[in-house]
Amino acid sequence: MTDCETEISQGRRFAFGRNWRQFGQLIDETRIASATKSLEAALGTTDLSGRTFLDIGCGSGLFSLAAVRMGARVRSFDYDPDSVRTTKKLRTEFAPDSDWSVCCASVLDPDFVQRQEPADIVYSWGVLHHTGALWKAMDTACGLVAPGGTLFISIYNDQGLESRLWTEVKRRYNASGPLGRRVLVTGSLLYLGRNYPLHVLAKLARGGTAAGGTVPRPRGMSRKHDLVDWVGGYPFEVATPEQVFSFCRERGFELRHLKTCKGGLGCNEFVFALDGRAEG
């Protein structure tokens, strides 16, 4: 298997971890509280005591930390070494004595997956569509859910032609140099924010607070870092809500929570219960 850093150097993968490392510098108690609140709302509980939580593609580690705060025993892994380092730093700063392990691995590595114990909650928000093998990764994630457990995933919405065009933007971003990338980010910002005042867009491009560059978004995220992740996020695959629902239902899951992006740009969020048993 080709390693992450080689894929990045060859322009075949976005440096997700570098973006998460920058975002990690913004994480504070306000963002942690927002992330925890969103996790509680989707799972329908405030208490994960006694449950295991597997974070596939942990990114900055923010939601692993939220699960720790809710009482879970957490295992986190990510394909990108920078993400792993950022998550470990977060653990050291905010939960040094917690039952929380972090390692570098791929959900597409069968040897690694085979060694994993099934978890009560398998969480992978905005990750599986960046593996380059969405449905294989989905199948693996489903297989890591313990009987009676929960699968919490989000997958980019299939917008048809527009999704294909964004795929090309992302491919070009990763094949470009610094100037080309800045042009693509700026052009994408103008396109996505075409209904916003120009001064707001300018502040967002600089990370200013008026456009939410440093003010937490829902889930505790950052508009500026989400923008770069969106423009550069490659590999990139999409799925309709119906495809995700059918795929999981065939594997014994029942839908417990759904939050769509209303047919537009972004992720559709799903929580499934295995064998029809809800978590809560």
Quick tags:
7-stranded mixed β-sheet, 12 helices, 18% strand, alpha/beta, 280 residues, 7 strands
Please provide a written account of the structure.
It is built from twelve helices and seven strands. It has 280 residues and is an alpha/beta fold. The chain has a seven-stranded mixed β-sheet with strand order 3-2-1-4-5-7-6, sandwiched between helices. Helix 2 runs antiparallel to helix 11 (223-232) and helix 3 (29-43) packs across helix 4. The protein starts with a helix and ends in a 6-residue tail after the last strand. Residues 208-213 have low confidence and may be disordered.
Question: Unreliable stretches, pLDDT < 50, 5 or more residues?
Answer: 208-213
Helix coverage percent of residues?
A: 40-55%
How would a crystallographer describe the biggest sheet? 7 strands, mixed
Structural class: alpha/beta
Principal-axis shape: globular
- Number of E-state strands: 7
Oligomer: single chain
Mean pLDDT: 91
User: Secondary-structure element order, as H and E?
Assistant: HHHEHEHEHEHEHHHHHEE
From the alpha carbons, calculate the radius of gyration and give it in angstroms.
Answer: 18 Å
Note the gap between the termini.
38 Å
Question: Spatial order of the strands in the main sheet?
Answer: 3-2-1-4-5-7-6
What is the beta-strand fraction? 15-25%
State the helix count: 12
